[in-house]
């Protein structure tokens, strides 16, 4: 059952070959069987089975709902009325939201069953899922390796087939990097495609929700549900949402794919380079035109991102002060010490590090030297992409510089982890859509991902290209032997 696509599961439920209760119970059993991954922070078993039973008893409600009765799991960055929403932080331990995030509400309206909440890096800050207050998540391909971050729980759950689909969020690569590390499909849509209402903020001008799935076709189905204008989020685009599944099977012959030389230089693991180069040859065989291009200012992406994102994070996280909700330190003797102790003991190291960076860079004394310069660099990076898309339909790159990192790697400094985001953060800075799909394995049998980037609000092109590749290959169908039982 866990090897079926979303389309197959939905069809089986609609024609009553399977019931929603059977499908939901099957995934709940798998979640309990594989708790050692630490992918789930909460399992909403009773609520999920209640929802599934309602779907089975009300088949007439499935009209125009292609994923009616199909289970999903949500990253714990999305507010849900059921259960807790912690953002994997002690500062929000046992916090219960009194509303559902728009993404959660849309999935529920589509008749999807919420299995529970998924682990993540605290406040979506991290690349390994080791920054969670509730422990690290393991990579299903090798438990000694991380699943990536910050959507590590989502990636691990889908990779191990504990959930047929999961929601994620991507501020600088947090959908695409873990998708690459765990051998699944993940898409970050254009900024503004999906509402951020009820998604706990990290960096408001960069955050974007998206689906993490086993295939491009499943991702396209989910985008149909998740996308659209929301009056609760004024940054959502007031443009029509296309049917993302409509042109998936179109011939890609004649489409031009740009290959930026800057993504294939020093620092790229040889196995990753060879796998992506082989994927490029596959596209040539499918009739796509391959064209070398330049994105000359890629080197500005990391310092730009790690100034702008922490500045916004410092502002967004100022609200967690121990007063209205969340963690409150019991030994405070004054209002000032309550603020100080609650934040000191409520936040983890990485979150505090980024708050300090952001506060420093946005201070009156240093904002001209750092913040204003970062905004200029962001514009330069955006213009590089604009120029590239006058010549090509899409851009193809490795998703990451290497395969999954080891857990508990004491030699890996925060700055080295920041540098590993070099291939993903520029996409967020330019507000572009990007897709990561699996293209092979390294010599340690760890998955390798390839990234496809297109112009703003042109998700259809990368979905079409990704689907064409997955029809010609089998990498996306592979998942770890340990989880096939």
Folded structure, characterized:
It is a single chain. The protein is of the alpha/beta class and 485 residues long. The chain has a single domain (6-254, 393-483), classed as Amidase signature (AS) domain (Amidase signature (AS) enzymes, Alpha-Beta Complex). It is 35% helix and 12% strand. The strands form 2 sheets. Strands 4-6-5-10-11-9-7-8 form an 8-stranded mixed sheet. Strands 1-3-2 form a 3-stranded mixed sheet. The radius of gyration is 21 Å and the shape is globular. The model has no long low-confidence stretch (mean pLDDT 96).
Low-pLDDT residue spans: none
Over the alpha carbons, how many angstroms does the gyration radius reach? 21 Å
How many individual helices?
Answer: 15
Q: Proportion of β residues?
A: 5-15%
Q: Would you tell me the overall average pLDDT?
A: 96
Tell me the strand order in the biggest sheet: 4-6-5-10-11-9-7-8
CATH architecture, by name, is Alpha-Beta Complex
In CATH's first tier, which class applies? Answer: Alpha Beta
Oligomer: single chain
Q: Tell me the distance between the termini.
A: 11 Å
Condensed summary:
With 485 residues, the protein is α/β, with parallel strands linked by helices. The protein has one domain: Amidase signature (AS) domain (Amidase signature (AS) enzymes, Alpha-Beta Complex). It contains 15 helices and eleven strands.
List the helices and strands and how they pair.
Elements: H1 6-14, H2 20-33, E1 40-43, H3 45-57, E2 71-75, H4 102-109, E3 113-118, H5 152-159, E4 166-169, H6 176-182, E5 185-188, E6 209-213, H7 216-226, E7 256-260, H8 270-285, E8 289-293, H9 301-316, H10 335-346, H11 349-361, H12 371-388, E9 394-398, H13 414-419, H14 425-429, E10 434-441, E11 447-453, H15 459-472
Parallel strand pairs: 2-3, 7-8, 7-9
Antiparallel strand pairs: 1-3, 4-6, 5-6, 5-10, 9-11, 10-11
Helix pairs in contact: 2-3, 5-6, 7-15, 9-11, 9-12
């Amino acid at each position: 059952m866990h090897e079926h696509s979303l389309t197959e599961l939905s069809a089986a439920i609609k024609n009553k070959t399977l019931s929603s209760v059977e499908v939901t119970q099957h995934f709940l059993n798998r979640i309990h069987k594989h708790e050692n991954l630490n992918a789930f922070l909460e399992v909403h078993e009773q609520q999920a089975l209640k929802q599934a039973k309602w779907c089975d008893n009300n088949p007439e409600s499935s009209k125009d709902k292609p994923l009616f009765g199909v289970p999903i799991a949500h990253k714990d960055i999305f507010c849900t009325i059921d259960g807790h929403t912690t953002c994997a932080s002690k500062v929000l331990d046992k916090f219960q939201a009194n509303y559902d995030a728009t993404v959660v509400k849309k999935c529920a309206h589509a008749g999807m069953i919420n299995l529970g909440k998924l682990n993540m890096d605290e406040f979506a800050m991290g690349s390994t899922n080791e920054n969670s207050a509730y422990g690290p998540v393991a990579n299903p391909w090798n438990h000694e390796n991380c699943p990536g971050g910050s959507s590590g729980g989502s990636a691990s759950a889908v990779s191990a087939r504990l959930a047929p689909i999961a929601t994620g969020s991507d501020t600088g690569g947090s959908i695409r990097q873990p998708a690459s590390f765990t051998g699944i499909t993940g898409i970050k849509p254009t900024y503004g495609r999906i509402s951020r209402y009820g998604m706990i903020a990290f960096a408001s001008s960069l955050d974007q929700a998206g689906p993490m799935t086993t295939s491009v076709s499943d991702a396209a189905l989910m985008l149909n549900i998740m996308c659209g204008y929301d009056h609760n989020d004024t940054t959502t685009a007031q443009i029509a949402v296309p049917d993302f599944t409509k042109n998936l099977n179109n011939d890609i012959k004649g489409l031009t794919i740009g290959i930026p030389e800057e993504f294939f230089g020093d620092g790229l693991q040889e196995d990753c380079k060879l796998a992506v180069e082989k994927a490029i040859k596959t596209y040539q065989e499918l009739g796509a035109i391959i064209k070398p291009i330049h994105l000359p200012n890629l080197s500005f992406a990391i310092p730009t991102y790690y100034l702008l994102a922490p500045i916004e994070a410092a502002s967004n996280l100022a609200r967690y002060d121990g007063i209205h909700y969340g963690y409150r330190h019991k030994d405070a003797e004054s209002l000032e010490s309550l603020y100080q102790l609650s934040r000191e003991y409520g936040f983890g190291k990485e979150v505090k590090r980024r708050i300090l960076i952001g506060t420093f860079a946005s201070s009156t004394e240093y904002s001209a030297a750092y913040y204003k310069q970062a905004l200029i660099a962001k514009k330069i990076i955006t213009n590089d992409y604009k120029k590239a898309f006058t010549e090509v339909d899409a851009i193809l790159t490795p998703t990451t510089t290497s395969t999954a990192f080891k857990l508990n790697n004491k030699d890996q400094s925060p700055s080295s982890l920041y540098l590993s985001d070099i291939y993903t953060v520029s996409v967020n800075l330019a507000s572009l859509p990007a897709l990561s799909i699996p293209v092979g394995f390294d010599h340690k049998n760890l998955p390798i991902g390839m990234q496809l980037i297109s112009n703003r609000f042109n998700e259809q092109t990368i979905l079409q290209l990704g689907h064409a590749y997955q029809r010609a290959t089998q990498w996306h169908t592979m998942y770890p032997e340990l989880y096939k039982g």
